[in-house]
Amino acid sequence: MCKEKEVLSQKARECGAAYGMTIYSDEELLSLVTGIAPEKFTGTLQETFDNPKKIDGIGKRKELAVFAVRELSKRYLQKQPPPYIIHGPEDAAAYARQQLAMETKEHFCVMLLNTKNHVSGWHIVSIGSLMASIVHPREVFAPAIVHHAASIILVHNHPSGDPSPSREDISVTQRLVKAGKIMDIPVLDHIIIGDNRFISLKEKGLLV
Questions:
Q1: In this structure, are 180 and 112 located in the same domain?
Q2: Which domain holds residue 138?
Q3: What is the DSSP-derived secondary structure letter of residue 15?
Q4: How many structural domains is the chain composed of?
Q5: C-alpha R_g of the chain
Q6: What is the CATH number of the domain that holds 181?
Q7: For position 16, what pLDDT does the model report?
Q8: Is the pTM of this model over 0.85?
Q9: d(Cα 138, Cα 107) in Å, to the nearest integer?
Q10: How far apart, in whole angstroms, are the C-alpha atoms of residue 134 and residue 130?
Q11: Helix H segments across the chain?
């Protein structure tokens, strides 16, 4: 059992730290918490939460660990704000302003949306000048794939205050739109944030 724990801990350090805990199945996450082999969790997650003692190897201490995870999950969900819904460019720009309000450098980010257009994630792809060599499709779509996004919105800010798109902005956008079509993760828009105003490349007809 100690050897098994050691292997799991090593996997957590090497894989979880690099790619995030989303790479693990429910059984693997429970294994990391309890030290019990993943294959022993044969029931549903709800069944395990309701009666962890039915799992071979779980005693009182590990049972409490499972109950603690269940309670933390419940509290976290209860404290979550209502989902932020994107109805159009104005909503996307408002959300982006909140994320980029204090930034003095150019940030290129990707907003993840689920099938209901709720914002499900926000990821910084690069900081600095917007260059095609830096904003590579794999860096943009990796978080969308990991978090099962239905679509994405590209966002970046212009610290100069002028949101007018440059040739590079348009070129990078169209490249990512093509990649999104291939991957079946559509790029809905590219919002450029300036001082008290924004530009939607979709509204400008520059997504194609």
A1: yes
A2: 89-200
A3: I
A4: 2
A5: 21
A6: 3.40.140.10
A7: 53
A8: no
A9: 17
A10: 7
A11: 2-11, 17-19, 26-34, 45-50, 60-79, 89-100, 137-146, 167-183
